[in-house]
Input
Amino acid sequence: MIPSIEFRGVSKFFGNIIALKDISFKVFKGEITALLGDNGAGKSTLIKLLSGVHIPSEGEILLSGEPVNFKSPRQAVSAGIGTVYQDLALQPLMSVTRNFFLGREITKGLFLNMPLMNTITKKEMAKLGIDVADPTQPIGTMSGGQRQTLAIARAIYFGANVLILDEPTSALGQKQQLEVLRTIKKVKELGDIAIIFITHNDMHAKLLGDRFAFLNRGKVLAEGSRDEIDMNNLRPLMAGGAELEKLETEFSGR
Amino acid sequence: MASDERIRDIGLIRRSISRPELGSVFGLIIIVITFMTLTSISGTFGAMWLNPIGIQAWVELAAFVGILAIGASLLMIAGEFDLSMGANIALAGHSFAIFLLFGVPIELAIILTFIELAFLGFIIGVIVVRTGLPSFIVTLAFWFASRGFAVFLSQTFFNQSRLSVKANLKPPPGGGEDPTLIDNIFAFDKAFGVPFDAEVYYFIILVFIVAFITNRTPYGNWIYASGGDPVAARAVGVPVARVKISLFMISTSLACLLGILTVMTSGASDPKAGDFRELHAIAAAVIGGCALTGGYGSVVGAVLGALIFAIASRGINFVPFIDNNLFRVMLGMLILGSALLNQFLRDRIVKG
Output
């Protein structure tokens, strides 16, 4: 199968700083690729390469087997790459429907077609397992997990076939984290979307990931499918493998 | 949607509580009852509420402040602010009068004045958007500059600060103050057989148009989003900068409308025209539920705010046993009270 997205030896330099060095990994549709790494591992730079904010210094990014060269976020979006950032880009005082369609409103002549937009919003949210009783309510009334779902549903509806989720669970309480994980599973079950799930929570990664990629200090430490990766080794890999071992010996030596 | 049984739980009360106008509806009811009671006590009830001249007094003021409040509320919803509105009324009036005195035909003078003021709004908008300076500061600069420039022009060309253009407005066939055909179409007033000044009619039409635009068009959506969270709005493709610039142009154009109408109905342009009106308009917007932080408010609320302002402002003259100065005390308390009430209502929405 051709990967939806493939990184081949991608590097990104900012002056003399090596943000990412020789990154290679694959993402397939209908699968969740968990991208793990500590703060400063280069996750944000990687997202920005994918979403067209930055251009790789070396190597190439392949979209469905074809090399691409995004010059702007707009190009990435129209190529079907949807990014859901941590802040979600939502307007708390505006209604669920207005948020869903903000910037891409459906009109009837000059005016908004609210009934149609309400129906679509309800339908798209229902696909991801959230029943919106009244889409005209402000999203201030929704839980953090539901808002996350709204942002995901919006990206999918507007044509994302690669969905990048930037730490979707990190700012939420336990119960809402589970809600979001459930949503991500629903997206996977839709079958035609490749999901890049960025997290530093190894539990969540283990729960959902079909493939894994571990970033540490700008490099991929390990990459592969569930069978290829030693699942019990997730946590040490996350913290950077050898570094944790070194720390362990340091502590035990005391 | 009607099939969803859970909508009932939210109910009419919760639904209306999440409307930004709610506070001003209460405010209007209270102020009307208060002044009806006070005028009854002092025996002036008929003079304020039944007599045409009494009604004109507060309706025309409400329309004048209301037209500005439309611009003020739109800008506040988008997270911006225009302190120069009052000064721009004088600039528009003077520009219009100067065009007339230079022999420009009245139709062309109107068009030129609108172009001038819209351009001024464009400049203000571009400065705010490009430099990132708070619009409070930028428009404070124009609060000085607009009126100053208007008076400078009239002093330079005509050696006076007040410009009379009565001679340029030809007398009407049947007598009265306002005159040529274009005057009558544009600034139709009592002489033309209608009970109110033109402001009132423009105001009513504008309120309907603007309320419709804000609630039912993509542009209206973008205004709210630009003020609510500009970064998030930009991320989903809302042209935030263009929205804000266009709103500054609307604000200066509304001031232009009032400037020209004032000259037409009074026959002269006064350098003091529109003094402090920007603050009255902002007060109306605040009373009407607009948040200074942007993203929240409504034009209809601002209109109700303008009515509250006008009834309190003119009503105090009909109640002789209350000192006129107390009006400003009352207005201050009214602004504070509404701001508190509106903040409470807004929190209810976010908390759900």
User: Anything to note?
Assistant: Chain A has one domain: 29-59+71-252.
